[in-house]
Design brief:
single chain, alpha/beta, Leucine-rich repeat, LRR (right-handed beta-alpha superhelix), 4-stranded mixed β-sheet, elongated, binds 2-acetamido-2-deoxy-beta-D-glucopyranose
């Protein structure tokens, strides 16, 4: 009986873990930095009090599991600089930044082994 009880508790705990699991915290931090580098972040319409970009309410972000796999912000008139640690989004597959007003240095894409496409055209990078 005791053993059975223990198993039940473990099963419940793992269920709770699945239900409450959210976007990788480091991926979230990079997206925060992305937003923070913009002069007009409101255009993204990312929710202010939500730390789960892989949840339902974040536009322009697409995930694979709990990792950010795509950022698609083309032609949104975004103005600003990119976080230089963008390559910490290590599961990034597609990056669509074209037709905005990004300035400053292009971040390194080093180590992004799953990257399939990157569109940077029509911006004002250094
Ligand atoms: C960019 O967005 C503007 C405004 O929404 C739209 O009129 C235009 O056709 C878009 N251009 C491209 C190339 O997608």
């Amino acid at each position: 009986m005791r053993k059975h009880h223990k198993k039940l508790v473990l099963a419940l705990l793992s269920l709770v873990a699945v239900v409450f699991s959210a976007t990788d915290p480091n991926d979230f931090a990079i997206l925060q930095a992305f937003r923070g580098g913009l002069e007009n972040p409101e255009l993204l319409e990312w929710p202010a009090n939500d730390d789960d970009p892989c949840g339902q309410s974040w536009k322009h972000v697409f995930c694979s599991g709990l990792r950010v796999a795509q950022i698609q912000v083309q032609n949104m008139s975004l103005k600003g600089v990119l976080p230089q640690n963008l390559n910490q989004l290590t599961k990034l597959q597609r990056l669509g930044l074209q037709k905005n007003q990004f300035t400053g240095a292009l971040p390194s894409l080093s180590g992004l082994s799953e990257l399939q496409s990157v569109y940077l055209d029509a911006n004002q990078f250094d």
